[in-house]
Amino acid sequence: MSIFTQSGTHLVADVNGYYAAPTSSGGRFTPLAPARLLDSRRTSKLVAGGTVDVQVTGAGGVPSSGVSSVVVNITITEPDGPGFVTGYASGAEQPTTSSVNNDRAGQTIGNLAILPLGSGGKLTLYTYAATNVIVDVAGWFSDGTGVGADKGLYVPLTPTRVLDTRDAPNTKVAPGGSIDLPLAGVAGVPAAGAAGVLMNLTMVDATGPGFVTAYPTGSIRQEVSSVYADPRGETIPSLVAAQLGDGGKVAMFSNAGTHLVADLAGWYIASSTVLGKLRSFGRTAFPEKGALG
C-alpha cells in the first residue's frame, strides 16, 4: 500500500481486517439503509476514560444472528476537549487504536469504522475525553455460518471521481437540498447486480456547520449522517458504505449548503449471477474480490 501526502504530516494507520479469498464462508456484506443505534445526547454524555456497550444485532436492520462485524459511522459531538473514540468487540481487550479523532473542544466529527462484534452481539466504545457519541449502522458482514457464494463479496476498483459539484453545470447543494447520484453502470460498477458501493464523500466549502446523509434513492431518509462539516467553510471527507436504491442511485441530503465530491472505491455483489454474466462476455472474474476476514 502506498500513501501520498501533499504536505508534510504525521500519519497513523490502524488495520481493521482483510479481504479473504471468496472460497471462505463468512465475511459477506449486506448493505443497509442507514439507521441510528446510539445517540448519547438523548441519554447522558460519556465520561472521560469511560466505555459504553452498544447493542448491534437485532437493531437497525442487523439480524439477531449470523453476524461477525458491522459497518458503522461513529461521530464525536460536543466533546470537552481533544480526544478520540475507540470501537471494539464487547468482551475483548481494548485495542491501542482509534476509530475517530477530534482536535478541539466542541467539535463535531465522524468516521466510518468496520468493527467486530463481541458478547451478545455488541460493540464497545471507549472515550478518551468526555463527549457525546452517535453511532449509525450502514451494513453488516456474515459469520462462518454463511453460504460461500459470490453474493456479498467486495469488488475493489481503481478510485474514480464520480461527482464534483464544483464542475459546471453542477452547482452547490442548497441547504436542505438533496441530489441523486447514479452509480449502477458507472466507473466499473455493473448496470445490474450491485447491492452497494464504497466511496469517499467530501464536503467542500460548506455554508455552515452541517452534515450530509447518503441513503438509497427511493427510501425514507432516516435521522443519520455520513459526513459532518464543522466549522463553516471546512473541507472534510468520510468513507461511506452506501446501499443502492431506485435506478441504482444513492441520494445525498445536506442540511447546509455545500459542494460534494464523491470518489468511488468499489462495489458489493448483490447476486451470484452477475459474475457469470460478466464471464460470458469474456471479462476476468475479478480475482481481487473477497470476503472480509
What's the arrangement of secondary structure elements?
Layout: E1 19-20, E2 29-39, E3 50-55, E4 67-77, E5 83-89, E6 100-102, E7 109-116, E8 122-127, E9 132-142, E10 154-164, E11 177-182, E12 194-204, E13 210-216, E14 227-229, E15 236-243, E16 249-254, E17 259-269, H1 273-280, E18 291-292
Antiparallel strand pairs: 1-18, 2-9, 3-8, 4-7, 4-9, 5-6, 5-8, 10-17, 11-16, 12-15, 12-17, 13-14, 13-16
Describe the structure in your own words.
The protein has 293 residues and is mainly β. The chain has 2 domains: 19-142, Jelly Rolls (Sandwich); 154-288, Jelly Rolls (Sandwich), CATH 2.60.120. Helix content is 3%, strand content 44%. The chain has one helix at 273-280; strands spanning 19-20, 29-39, 50-55, 67-77, 83-89, 100-102, 109-116, 122-127, 132-142, 154-164, 177-182, 194-204, 210-216, 227-229, 236-243, 249-254, 259-269, 291-292. The strands form 5 sheets. Strands 2-9-4-7 form a 4-stranded antiparallel sheet, with no helix packed on it. A 4-stranded antiparallel sheet has the order 3-8-5-6, with no helix packed on it. The radius of gyration is 19 Å and the shape is globular. It starts with 18 loop residues before the first strand and ends with a strand. Residues 278-287 have low confidence and may be disordered.
